Amino acid sequence: MPNLGAQHANLDQKVYQILKTMIMERKLLPGEKIRQEKLAQELGISRTPLVAALKFLEHEKLVESKPRRGFYVRLFKIQEMVSIFELREVLEGLAARRAAGQVTNTQIDRLRQFFSPFKQLPEISDYRRYSQEDRLFHNYVIQIGAKEFLRSILETYNIISFSYQVVSSEGLVRSPDETLEEHLAVIEAICDRDPEAAENLMRNHFKKSAASLTEGIAKLRSA
Amino acid sequence: MPNLGAQHANLDQKVYQILKTMIMERKLLPGEKIRQEKLAQELGISRTPLVAALKFLEHEKLVESKPRRGFYVRLFKIQEMVSIFELREVLEGLAARRAAGQVTNTQIDRLRQFFSPFKQLPEISDYRRYSQEDRLFHNYVIQIGAKEFLRSILETYNIISFSYQVVSSEGLVRSPDETLEEHLAVIEAICDRDPEAAENLMRNHFKKSAASLTEGIAKLRSA
DNA sequence: ATTATGAATTTTGAATACAAAATTCAGTAT
DNA sequence: ATACTGAATTTTGTATTCAAAATTCATAAT
């Protein structure tokens, strides 16, 4: 139970962050109804900023509002996760394109460091560590190439995408040995300042993951 | 001054619609501070649903909140309009791809009707009518191909895009004679159920418009 | 005349209050 | 036992209230 003092400028934002974390960490379960009075008391606030935060989350699709019924934690079907991969495909493709077009030398140095602990290894076994590097890498490309609108959209949908990983067994759609190459290729294209290549490689990377997810569904169905 | 009775289930949504219209119709001017008490009174409501609606609009970037300072109508720089075109390029490209993959025969019939009043003409002079058809066409592709996430993003950004047209002289970035062909090509690709072509053609369509906008800026600068 | 000071006013952020709607639950009829 | 009815309870949507922060405005100092 996080304690919220009065020391913050904007309670809304703080509450929003807390709720987001609670949802991603499965403290609030998908499908579950959010009891406003109860939750507000637990957080030591009134319903006003809580509802404001819930409205934010509604926009980010993490929560659903049924009029006169209340807010419910959103549940994502696998099919919806596939759509989100499709979205990320084109959006991060765009981010990669722009990144390649405006990357600085300092950023190139940083980019080249990504995945270096894994490059030497004959086989990658620490999935958790790789998955974390994966997330950091994607975020860094966004930081370089996406601003304003693109960035705010990606923030929203990547959160959903990542929060889903909590459910999936190892947190990855495909094995590191398969994706490492793709990641390195994207890095090279950006460092070469080749926007076309960067976009295409990033899109391919996602296309393969989406395909893999879809396959996974098919297998699940037949099993 | 629209009159809001108590007859609505959700005031938030109604107020949100009204505000959106007011912003797009320039009843609230970009940069202007929104006087909450005053506006709430004009609408005959309290600040609570007004603030809720403003938070919605903040998410859609039509309004900006400065903490402890209030809400301001957002002002878009031309550079930001270009970014929005870039966004629409990849997003509507995706919509077109998906549209081509799942279009029904009925929808094909409807699609082929778009722009037919303009096809015969040697030259298109009624810019307003063409601009309206343009908007309807893009919305229809979205209706066919985009659902859930993609649709909600496009709704947001197309609104900004269209609301900008109110400012620009004739409401179009390029002349109809230039874009008609492109529109028809996209229609054909979708009706042929060719996702790749549909996406590429749609993206090209936007790429050219973005380029044209950028050129416009350059000209403005040198003038 | 310009800048600085601080009191009066306005506005925001958040809690509280309250009527209307939804939900729960007990008691009754089938 | 099950389905129905309506009263009691809870929850939602909205208005109102209030303290703290920001803004305005008048006055005084340079």
Describe the structure.
The structure is a homodimer of 223-residue chains. Chain A has 223 residues and is mainly alpha-helical. Helix content of chain A is 69%, strand content 4%. Chain A is built from ten helices and two strands, in the order αααββααααααα. Chain A has helices at 11-24, 36-43, 47-59, 78-102, 105-113, 116-119, 127-145, 148-165, 176-191, 195-222; strands at residues 63-66, 70-73. Chain A has a two-stranded antiparallel sheet with strand order 1-2. In chain A, helix 1 crosses helix 3 (47-59). Chain A is globular, with a radius of gyration of 19 Å. Chain A binds chain B through residues 9-10, 51-52, 55-56, 59, 61, 67-68, 80, 83-84, 86-87, 89-91, 93-94, 98, 147-150, 152-153, 157, and chain B through 9-10, 51-52, 55-56, 59, 61, 67-68, 80, 83-84, 86-87, 89-91, 93-94, 98, 147-150, 152-153, 157. Chain A binds a DNA duplex (30 and 30 nucleotides) through helix 3.
Provide a short characterization of the protein structure.
Chain A has helices at residues 11-24, 36-43, 47-59, 78-102, 105-113, 116-119, 127-145, 148-165, 176-191, 195-222; strands at residues 63-66, 70-73. By secondary structure, chain A is mainly alpha-helical. In chain A, strands 1-2 form a two-stranded antiparallel sheet.
Low-confidence stretches of chain A: 1-8
Helix tally of chain A equals: 10
Strand-residue fraction of chain A? under 5%
Total beta-strand segments of chain A: 2
Estimate percent helicity of chain A.
55-70%
Q: Name the assembly state.
A: homodimer
Q: Rg of chain A, please?
A: 19 Å
Order of helices and strands of chain A: HHHEEHHHHHHH
